[in-house]
Design brief:
The complex is a heterodimer of chains A (669) and B (577). Chain A has 28 helices and 7 strands. By secondary structure, chain A is mainly alpha-helical. Chain A has 2 domains: 584 residues, no CATH class; 74 residues, no CATH class. The radius of gyration of chain A is 28 Å and the shape is globular. In chain B, α4 runs antiparallel to α13 and α13 packs antiparallel against α17. With 577 residues, chain B is mainly alpha-helical. In chain B, the strands form 3 sheets. Chain B has a two-stranded antiparallel ribbon. Chain B is globular, with a radius of gyration of 24 Å. Classes of the chains: A mainly alpha (669), B mainly alpha (577). Chains A and B meet through β4, α27 and α28 of A and α7, α11, α12, α15 and α23 of B.
Amino acid sequence: MQDIPIYEFTLLGWIALLPLLGAIFNGILGARLPRALVSTVAAGAMGVAFILSIVAVWTLFQGRFEGADGHTLYGALYHNVFTWFEVGSLRVDFELLLDPLSAVMILIITGVGFLIHVYSIGYMEGDRSWWRFFTYLNFFVFAMLMLVLGDNLVVLFLGWEGVGVASYLLIGFWYEDDEKASAGKKAFIVNRVGDFAVLLALFLLVIYAGSLSVVELREWASTLSPAQVTALGGVLTAICILLFIGCTGKSAQIPLFVWLPDAMAGPTPVSALIHAATMVTAGVYLIARLNFLFVLSPTAMTLIAVIGGLTAFFAATIGVVQNDIKKVLAYSTVSQLGFMFLAVGVGSFFAGVFHLMTHAFFKALLFLGAGSVIHGMHHEQDIRRMGGLKDYMPITRWTFLVGCLAIAGFPLFSGFFSKDEILWYTLANVHLLGGVNLSWFLWFLALGTAFLTAFYMFRLYFLTFEGECRADEKTRSHIHESPLAMTLPLVVLAVLAGFGGFVGIPPVLGNALGGLPNVMHDWLYQVIGPGEAFFAYRFEGYGMAWMSMAAATASGIGGIALAWLFYGKPSDVPGAMAEKAAAVHRILSNKYYVDEFYAATVGRGVTLLGRVCHRLVDELLIDTLLVNGTARLMGFLGSVLRVVQNGQVQRYVAFVFLGIAIILYLVLR
Amino acid sequence: MSSLITPIDIASTLPFIVLCLFGMVVLLLEVFQRQGQSRSYLAYVSAVGFATAAFSAWLLMGVEGQLVFHDMNYIDGFSKVTALLMCTAGAVTCLIAPRYLAELNADRGEFYALILFSAGGMIMMVSAADFIVFFMALELMSIAVYALAAYVRSSRVAAEAGFKYFLMGAFASAIMLYGIALVYGATGTTNLAAIGQLLSYGAASGSVDPALLLSKVSEQGALAGAAGYDTTTGDLLMLNYGSGTANMPLLYLGITLVIVSAVFKVGAVPFHMWLPDAYSGAPSPVGAFMASAVKAAAFASLLRLLALAFFDYELRMGPMGWVQVTFFLALLSMAIGNLVAIAQTSVKRMLAYSSIAHTGYMLVAITAMGYGVGDLDLGASVVFYLFAYVFGTVGAFGILAYLTRSRYYVERFSDLNGLGYRYPALGVAMTLFMLSSAGIPPTAGFIAKFQVFKAAVIAYGAGVEAGEPGALLLLALVVSGILFSVVGVYYYLKVIVHLYMRDPVREVTASDSGPARVGISVCAIATLVIGLFPGPLLNLSEQAMSQMEGRHDGVYVQYEDGAPIEDLQRLMREGSR
């Protein structure tokens, strides 16, 4: 592998610092300042951070050169803020690193983040904890930037925990409501499980690789000989699987996905920023970032692909029967994240990151659109009581439609390109688990998911915007289009969701259209190229690629068509079907009873363990033995020391003499 | 020898001079002050004095370490870094004092002058290159603090505390002087580095300065067999004692007495008896000053003494070496300090005992520093610990002072009941100080404890490698230190429990003093920031040790058939040519 040059670039520090400064400023002074100033500081910090990010990425782009293998490389920019700590041979620098991968991420985070800050100005209007909201939001962005910019995994982990805290604070933002507060707790606790696994993985890395710097780890991984890889096989697999468990927590995959739907209790801009566009994709980012490590463990890779595929499919089936507009989007997020994990699992880190990006666009758009609907309908979230909103909220409607087309993979919309890439790599690469090649299985799973996605998204669209308005009179009279602060971000995101896919034109299309390049893939090559080289195509030529693309398109359009049949016009088919397959419907509505299952096993297990610990450790060991024992010991010691420490100077001097005498005896004996 | 005082002499003692000047200014201002007028502004004047002194120390950072004032004083990294420490402690003390003094009708300017003079003494003490200067500075520091302890004349408790402190201090000074006399008798010099080189058992590669040695060793020294100089050949005669030291019980008596009187000031068990009375009897700001600056100065000068004069392998690790002394002192201090602190009902007394426990932890690091081959760089952990300790302690005492009103003292645990809700910022600050003292992340105290125990583990590793005796004992010391710090968590958390989980038993209203708030905030922020980003301070404390002038390392004696590989005599002969 070719050495990647890195250049010092101080501006990186400012990109991360600005949101932090905003959070500190608003956190300390915000309660006493006028609202306009608070939001201007918060959004302004984001805006400037976004501009600086563009400058940084442009600088990175300017430094491009041709690598030895003919690919364009960009090197990396770094800024060592300070050395955090040094323990033995482990040195942790607080170093920020910008390479093509983190460049994509910071543009999404600061760009989409900025839009969502602007949107929040409209959405949160009238909330009495206005300053608190913007403080948390800015803090979240800071932590997220730490996560993606940190070269050291400890810094990354700091950001990882930081976004977890921010997410907790924002889900439970309206903490007076018990249900919302406990949703925040649920998210935090479920994430702890994953975070613990990440910590274990970091410990293993320290032991075996001796470093936690991504740059150094990459070097370490690239110098491992095949024999060493075989020898380390178990450890590497353990590390990768532990990291992936962390990802299942943060990115809501099976088995730790249960917190994300509940997280919708938070304000909608939060759902858009944290629980759709940025934080939940951290897992995908982590795997793409450490792709050199993951490719060394085919077992872990296949596991990731399978979990991703299954999550995508099952979340999509649950999404079909949800009636809360945000819950539908939440399950769709889980499902799309599953797609991303499928992509990185099958070895196409590019497709994973690409889908991450397009998803950030269209899912942020959809959430913000949903927020606009909720805002317009005065906090009504049940789509059964909506309908016909296209007349009341034209901008929201059209932008939402763009989002739906994108996520459904309608040709030429952004989701089409990224989803097609995932499907193609799923089919083209070989994924062995226990000697069985899972390519076709995963491909059909993804294809089914694509169909379901299109179906439930257009079910949502038709029920919300088309047909007759089913809201009561009072609500209906108040429905209005949202203010400019909210619609403007919608329009910008709609443009991105519509055309964002053209940066990643697949080779099969690019070739047919006369050699159009896959810009995104070329950009990311430096980071993910060597990892992807581990995988080889099974197929010659473009035949199968065309087939895959056609199938994906057909399933997307099929889903839309079915949704139109069921919900586009008055119909009693859905109701009849729900009745016919009542059992299935019940299982789906109850989300496969996963929450209940966890409550019965993990929940009750932990309670039981707690009770045992209470009896044995707390009451017996601590209360009886230690506390009362210490008290008794202290009583004894006290009576001894009372004699000694009686306040008489003569006695003090006598004891000093005694002390000296004893020491002299020890020394001179 | 020229009798001129060079500019570098003046410049290098600038922090000391600044403090003394400010002390005099404060005294003068006091003279022109009408009775009954508020003297609070003097606190700011003194704080500015400390800031100026600290700034001058900072400016001197670039100056290369050297001997100044006719080899009486060092200007080096160690003295500068510790000067920063002392200035910080002094400044915060001055900030928390004014309102407290006003509440007790003791608002007079001498208070600040005494603090300034005392701190001047400390700075002189840690930069001393000679026992004479060292002792003078020690007394300058101590006498001011005796007066401070009894400063609130109307309080019988304070008077008692001051008097006891004075008696015990005088006693310790006497022991120190006797020890110095014995060491002088054995070596013929009071110069620390010269003593170190004379008493070195093996090769002091690189650190030997024959000129210094010859200029410092007196006739008596030569007569005592310390060093001689053949005038005809120019050869050095009988330079080091070699195995001869083993036959000099009086020398060891002297060394032991010097070390004992030094640990007396830091309050190690069994020389700690005065400490709880003095800390808790003295006014809270003075208690803060004694617990932080005085202790820090005493520890720093102990490091200096050990590193310069008594760091020879035989002196440390021999059958009569001081490592075994510090070992037991450390163990006893950790045990007694932590256990007795549990039983206290007064927060001030608890803090006093906890400071004994902290002494124990730092002595662990000093034991580690002296153990085996001896690694002076491990002393950096003590410097770091002192910083963390100073912020935590001054802050905690400061909060007690902040809460004390003319009607009542806030000293008992129950006085703190429920204050965490009434004064949220104060509650958070106190919680931080307690967590730091208990050594819980993310506070400075955690990193400090970690550094100290890490030092001991490193010394253990090196000791095992070199086949030193008793390495396991050192490890046992670390383990017991960790266990005792777990015990300590109990009484630190007790403060937090009272702050947040107990109902108030009586009305406590904070004095609401602006400067005190500034001082406490500085401590709280420093505690947190150092805990989160220890890097810079770690570097600074490492720098303090590595840039300590005249330090006597490189004396890692390696035996080969019982004889030192290189001997000082040959080296010195080469050096003199």
